[in-house]
Amino acid sequence: RQACQAAAGWQACYPNSPRVAVNISSHQFQRGNIFHLTKNVLAETGLPAEKLIVEITESLLISDDQETLDQLRAIRSLGMDLSIDDFGTGYSSLSYLKKFPITTLKIDRSFVMDVTTNPEDEALIKAIISMAHSLNLKVVAEGVETAEQANFLRSRNCQFIQGYLYSKPLTNKDFIKYYHDKSVQTT
After folding, report:
1. How many angstroms separate the CA atoms of 186 and 62, rounded?
2. How far is CA 23 from CA 46, 49, 53, 170, 182, in A?
3. Is pLDDT of 187 > 50?
4. Residues in CB range of 79: below 8 A, 6 or more apart
5. Residue 184 to residue 6: CA distance in whole angstroms
6. Phi and psi, residue 61, nearest 5°
């Protein structure tokens, strides 16, 4: 709710404001009806569904139950993206990418950290990005701290990059100032 309220405020000030991603743990997901909660929060805050990304971990998909699949499909039907957070660090099964309505893979920082010095990390990231593009999925690399990492990821067509290279975590107030300052610099 807090994340959606903040993002709705950004949207009111900046029509091209960024989307907000919210992590939902498998425990939260199984405790209640996430679909109805999400739908109600979007209605309360006025945040457009396409401005919200729901991030789940691979552990949620392991249960492989019909209720989980139904809730994920319902969430997608609202227009939100579904992202697998920390992709490749858990119990990865490529069948998840086919079965569940995932839109985005988020490459874990443990692969990004040494991508410019470790050939295995480089190969894994190339493979993840290539596979994601073949499946029409978006890719986010997390934990980017150096320009070299960012350049490598861009050269491999990684669509989204996040990390301390750009900013450390910010409060909502600090984010608004940061976003405003960046918007002014690009105009």
Report:
1. 43
2. 20, 15, 9, 17, 26
3. no
4. 48, 49, 50
5. 20
6. -75, -20
Token pair, residue 149, equals: 């990492």
Q: Do 80 and 53 contact (CB within 8 A), yes or no?
A: yes
Percent of the chain with pLDDT over 90: 65
- The structure's pTM equals 0.88
Say how far residue 128 (Cα) sits from the centre of its chain.
15
Alpha carbons 55 and 29: distance in angstroms, whole number: 11
- pLDDT, tens digit, for every residue of 173-182? 999 888 888 7
Q: What is the pLDDT of residue 64?
A: 61
Neighbours of 167 (CB within 10 A): 13
Distances (CA, A) of 51 to 112, 116, 164, 185: 26, 32, 22, 23
The position carrying tokens 């491999």 is 156
Q: Is residue 60 within a helix (H) or strand (E), and if so which, with residue range? A: helix 58-62
